[in-house]
Amino acid sequence: MSEQYPALVVIGPLLCALLVSVAGWLRPRLCLPLALLGLGIAASSSTGLLAQVLTHGPVTYRLGGWAPPWGIVYHVDNLNAVVAALVSWVALTNLVASYRAVMTDYPEKIGPFYTLYVLSVTGMLGMVVTGDAFNLYVLLEITSLTGYALIGLGGGRAPLASLNYLFLGTIGASFYLLGVGYLYIVTGSLNMADLAKLLTPLHGSLALLAAFAITLVGLWMKMAFFPLHAWLPNAYGFAPSPAASLLAPLMTKVMVYVMIRVMISVFTVEFILSEVALSHFVVWLAVAAMVAGGLLALGQRDLKRMLAYIVVAEVGYMVGGAWLGNKLAMTGAILHIINDAVMTFCVFLAAGCIYQKTRGTAFEDLQGLFKKMPWTMTALAAGALAMIGVPPFCGFFSKWYLIRGGLEAGHWGFVGALLFSSLVNVVLFFRIFEIAFFEPMSHGHGGHDGHGEQGGPVALAEAPLSMLLPLMAAALGLIALGLATGPLVEKIILPIIPAGLG
Amino acid sequence: MLVHSITPLLAVLVSLAAVPFIILCRKRPNARESVTFIAAGIKLLLVASLLPLVMAGKEVGITLAPVLPGAPLALKVDAFGLLFALVSSSLWIVTSAYSIGYMRGLDEHSQTRYFCFFAVALSATIGVAFSANLFTMYLFYEMLSLATYPLVTHHQDPEARSSGRKYLFYIMGTSIALALPAMIIAYQQTGTLAFSPAGILAGKVSPLMAGVLLFMFIFGFAKAGIIPVHSWLPAAMVAPTPVSALLHAVAVVKVGAFSILRIITGVFGVDLLKGLDLGMAVAWVAAFTIIVASLIALSQDGLKRRLAFSTIGQLSYIVLGLALLSPKGMTGGTLHIAMHAFGKITLFMCAGAIFVATGKKNISEMTGIGKRMPWTMAAFLVGSLSVIGLPPTGGFISKWYLALGCLQAGSVALLVVLLVSSLLNAAYFLPIVYRAYFKPPTEAAWAEGRSEGPAAAWVPPLVTAACSLALFFYPQPFLRLAQMAVASLFGG
Description:
The complex is a heterodimer of chains A (502) and B (492).
Chain A: H1 5-26, H2 31-56, E1 59-62, E2 73-76, H3 78-105, H4 110-129, H5 133-152, H6 158-187, H7 192-199, H8 206-223, H9 231-238, H10 241-267, H11 269-275, H12 279-298, H13 303-323, H14 327-358, H15 369-372, H16 374-388, H17 395-409, H18 412-438, H19 465-483, H20 485-493
Antiparallel strand pairs in A: 1-2
Helix pairs in contact in A: 1-2, 1-4, 2-3, 2-4, 3-4, 3-10, 3-14, 3-19, 4-5, 4-10, 5-6, 6-8, 6-9, 7-10, 8-10, 9-10, 9-13, 10-11, 10-13, 10-14, 12-13, 12-18, 13-14, 13-18, 14-16, 14-17, 14-19, 16-18, 16-19, 17-18
Chain B: E1 2-4, H1 7-24, H2 29-49, H3 51-55, E2 59-68, E3 71-77, H4 79-105, H5 111-130, H6 134-152, H7 158-190, H8 207-220, H9 232-235, H10 241-268, H11 270-276, H12 278-298, H13 303-323, H14 327-358, H15 369-372, H16 374-388, H17 394-408, H18 412-438, H19 455-473, H20 478-489
Parallel strand pairs in B: 1-2
Antiparallel strand pairs in B: 2-3
């Protein structure tokens, strides 16, 4: 059984997605249990896979027994094992958390929603575990297409945002495919490990550079790396909250994973550091992403849209870290994939809880929330502190490594942008907290109107427990991840950082 | 010698653990406040139980999580930390009693929230006192910043909001923009952040870098209120008075001063600072703050604002004493953490007692108030004497050591600064007392006889005033701890 984990991670949810879609026609009540089953299989086998990889080293799984480089292989090392576990657990938690929202918002679309949801997660997990560059494209399209549909389920401007995302996302995916095509032309192979070997003698060739650049632009588009981010704020801002809290934390992170995978396992760091004289330029783009993401977030008057722009800034952290060209920064980038996924999940889920009760996430809707929804707001505060980078919340530690990486590279712009982004996050989140804490302003001097302990004009109106418990789990996860930074870095991340990085 | 023990961790966590119980008892205020008292009592006992070990020259520690290599989440109790923890945890009990008198006397809203965050703030304070390294200290420092925000903005009115903004801007802004990068640079250069008597930076940084880092730390820990990062403190006076009393005279501001203490004694080390002559630079920055803050205090009519500017000046006494880098001066600075705490908390509690009993906030409205509130004003007098540094109060002792320290460091100019500042202190405190006792009352009601408001509001300041007097005659264990701590820096 355990040797089948890599396949189960993908096949389990894929089969369940089919069953969910059938159940959607026949027995809609069965959709959720089947979806839970699918993601439960994915979560348990990815966890088993992680344990296996950590004890026995990387696992190579041949699908259908076909030998590479012609057959598709799943190659799993520390990096994708941990990302797969992350994706499957976040997706599973979000599935539990969102069932009430799906019931109330889309009672007649339960079948399609869960089918798309599980398929989307299947695609992400596939992208993470696959060791085949073309297979990755197929899975990317699965995730993207289901993602467009999930976002389009939302009301109002969501379909338009989804269409926009579809256009740009398709261009991005096509660029990636084109890049892979170039690689195939020059090497005749699609297997990543095989490609890495075949590409070494080709270093210096223009075709290789073109392939790399095109692939990279495609991936950047899919991860909304500034200035290719235009689709993201609307897509995640207007998406129905169950979809937003799935896609916002995971999609960009999976794409950053793919970028790092392509950088270290296909093109290799030697090629990137010596042949591609782009590092400096890319890090400055990342700086721009952090600054612009923060500033644009400041201009928003809606919680979800604000969070979406923060995602744009956070992508800058990871891309910058990956491109600084030293071990510390790469450690920070990989650590931030994990941390940022959980903290983005936490804040988007909190936004979902707020939407569930107030039917809106515009700033005006947030008034008095500390009284009405103390638990949700506590979790949002935890997410905020993680994003600001306050220890022991996990965000602090990835920022720690990223800043150290920036210092080591002597890139003061990157260090400054990280600190700037932390400060902007303080402003962003405390603006929210001010509204939720102070408004509506009480008449005159707030303190002494004598309405005693419970007396406020607003009563408690918390989100349902099925949303609250996953939210609390995510919030506690932020602290747990932070405290686990030591072993996480030492046991999981450091072993996979290529020696070529200084 | 390091003794492994879980006691420091329990001492930090006990107030945090009280929070769920405070929330559970929110419907029954008496039960809720008993939780606070029980937690405060246990905390003091735990902290005091460490005293024999530390007095015997041992250090008590525990490593919680190896989060960063060379900078784990770890606690270690030495004489410096224990002195600060003793002060904070003993005064928490007094302040809790006072909080009840004040909050109930004014029928404040959201008292459960208030007591919860107060408990969290105390955990953070003891955490800072017991931190074994700079990273752990930064963690608790930020925790304290965040826990006090809802206390400062307790009234939830526009004034509280704007003060809250100022508070965050200065406290979090400086810690993220200055202290955090300074800490990371120090780590980058040395690979460790553990406080050590010899410092960690010696030989690892260039003189220029050392100077830059030192000032990044000193202004980055803005809770110490060095000018120009001081103006959050007067703004924070919108908080209910018990918050001003414990947090903005003792816990929060002393956490700032204590952080600078750790930077000077544990990160840079006496020798490095002496060698680069950076001690004097810091001392003069502190001296500037002392004089300017005292001059501003003279002109304040709001009693709490005057006290706030006085606190800014007094905090710099601590920094000045440490920056002298002479044994006597450092002893004085360390001791001043304790002595100023007892004096200043008395003054704040008196200000609050006056507000509860009469609703007056301004000094000009307090003419003749001594007839109405003789005991409160007597406590105020003792507190003033202690902060000015006159016998028979504890403040005299720390100032005495500071003065000796200036001479030991060979700087007569700084001694003059201390003396001038003492005169200024007297000039802004004693007229208040004179006005209260010896001028004819302006408000007719005040002549009618004694009426000091709820006992829980005016007895606690009398208690702390009595402590201030007692500390003059028996300054232990604080003096002993301060001397031991400083002796450890100078090699026994």
